[in-house]
Amino acid sequence: MNITRAGIASVILSCGVSNIALAQEVTQAPQASEAVAGDIIVTAQRRSQSLLDVPLAISALGGDALESKGITNSASLATAVPNLQVSSSFGRTQPNFSLRGISVANEFNSNQASPVGVYIDDVYIAARTSHGMGLFDLDRVEVLRGPQGTLFGRNTTGGAINFITRQPALNGTQGYLQAGYGNYNTFKAQGAVETTMVEDELGLRIAANYEKGDGQIRNVYPGGRDANSVDSLQGRVALRAKPGNGAVDIKIRAYAGRDRGTQATPLGIPSERAASNLGFFEINENRVGLSRTDAWGIAGNVSVELSPTLTFTSITSYDGGKLDLDQAADGSPNDVLDIKWQSGFRQFSEEARINYEGDALKLVGGLFYGWDRTVTDNRFNIGSALGAGVDGGFFQHYRQSRRSYAAFLQGDYDLTDKLVLTLGARYTWDRGQYRDGYAFLFAGGVDDAMTPIASTVPCSGAPGTCAYDPNARFNLDGKNNALTGRAALSYTFDNGLLVYASYSRGYRSGAFNGGSYTSSAGVNYVEPERVNAYEAGVKGRLLGNMLTLSAAGFYYDYTNQQVQDLRAGPVNFLVNAPKAEVYGGEIEATLRPAPGFTINASGGYLHATYKELSLQGVDLSGNALPFAPRWTAQFGVDWKVFDTGRDSVTFSPSVNYFSRQYFSPFNTTDVAGTGQVNSELQQGAYAKVDAALVWQHDNIELRGWINNAFNRKVLAYGLDLRGAGFNYNLLVPAAPRTYGVTARVSF
């Protein structure tokens, strides 16, 4: 392989930077969070409301629902939320969210912000390495579809996901212990204990989660590790104080977690797989790496009731983490492509807001400040990069910092006792710095020390044309401002049915290209993404409260999606897709036709296409956006087979359907002369079946569960490598069938 092919390959592969997904088993939410059957109290508008009273498209899942649906990590959310996809090139280590077709597309560098904002207890998490945290001892998960540019802010063109943890209730002592065992020699343990030191005034809750299991992808290489193993440990402490049970409510939450599982290895080179007679869930890889990730943070939420109608809230947080991932990216017994991804993260945020609750007017307004920093050191080893049998590659370093300031205000005004007008606006100032950037071409194998040959950043020429300078650095600044907002009208009928229509404007901040290291010409700063979204919906209870229903239709005018474009050199540029069109709808329903029998179903239709886009000189207008299947559907039941009052057995099967989705903006289009076979970069339509059987006796629960019961062979992710000179595409399999039993005791 020559240097040009090596450079192209390494640039493309740099779009797949891992981030931490500390997979966790979810516990039941407190019953107090559910107002009535099928209704959950949410804070989607920064105040407590019934889910059915919020004029937004929201999927809210309490702890019971999470457990019955088998949602034990963030990737599983796609099975319960219509028009949500969760893809990853690194298995459980990197959840990349796509909501209504809006995602990071083919851009997966560690410095990029997700267009679906992820929050833990209303704290924005900038680093995508931490987006898998939170799925243990949760009160609920709220998934807000559509731009959330007013109350949630920047980087929410697709929507927002808020993981809300359980907090001390300030009365009594309670908790649970849970342990389980499954196939692949997987052991899980989880528990929480809550104690009240002073009734109604001071309480403490401590929760922990541990999971360890063998690899789910069998490695036939002699002595090689199996891929997709898990070894994770997380803990959380929550302290709550209400001095004198008065107007001040203080909540302090601290967490830490680490993951040491093996990587999700791609299937590899087709000719080698055929020669080894490998099955879909098998590989022949000499260097299955470890996904070493860490995340931690502390947050303080202080609420002060200034009067019966006025409340002040301050949320302060400091979070950090790191990524150290050894990725064999070839699925081969030879060292074709091996990458070491390394990044460290820090962030701070402060939000201060005022809530006013009047008879006819309700206001939420405030100020936000946040900064985050990413320090990256990546190494790309490419076999025969410098000539036949002469290995080499690229090393990359940079430091990115971002600062964001915002002011926001949203109000709901009762025009009549049934008609409500909502108006909101947010102004954001974003500033970014790319500092200390350098990269070089080196000689040496995977286990060898790097011998620098030539500087590539800073260097405006082709790789190898600039003499190596250890002191050379590249710096760049970027800034942008944005006005976002929301306007809506909602009407509530006498029977409680809510209808609404809204306009929202969302914004994802401009970004530096973290994926260019063969030339500084590609280290650029691109324009922000913007979405003008129009939505209409209905939600409420029908048939004498037997049916709970919500439905929404939407149309998006989507501009400037940030995507990667490979150009001659080779140089990878971050560019803006000028225009895309997205429209569709969702429906979610829960039917209780008889006591002890519940049917839940959801469906989504999505039409997401580029109206203007050219990559590698090819017009891709009309192509579908990546990770945007046309149809998604879910159907499940919770059937209480018998219930004696003290003993009960519940059977909960479900089926999830996804139509075809593409992994690349190219869809099936190949660029002439590149050797691309982009038709491989898609997953056809498929359905998966999950089920659980639960025996409940007083405070003891025994659960048997199975996911992907029919062992469907599904691709989770794909990336073009054939166009870069390799003889295979990077294709990552999703998890095979898993099953096990779990016992739980509550006190």
Basic shape: globular
Mean pLDDT: 91
Structural class: mainly beta
Low-pLDDT runs of 5+ residues are: 1-38
Strand content: over 45%
Oligomer: single chain
Please tally the β strands and state the result: 44
Number of helices: 3
What does this structure look like?
With 747 residues, the chain is mainly β. The chain is 3% helix and 57% strand. It is built from three helices and 44 strands. The strands form ten sheets. The chain has a 22-stranded antiparallel beta barrel. It has a five-stranded mixed sheet with strand order 3-8-9-6-7. A hairpin with a 3-residue loop joins strand 11 and strand 12. The chain is globular and about 75 Å long. The N and C termini lie far apart (63 Å).
Provide the descriptors you would attach to this structure in a database record:
single chain; 747 residues; mainly beta; five-stranded mixed β-sheet; 3 helices; 57% strand; globular; disordered N terminus
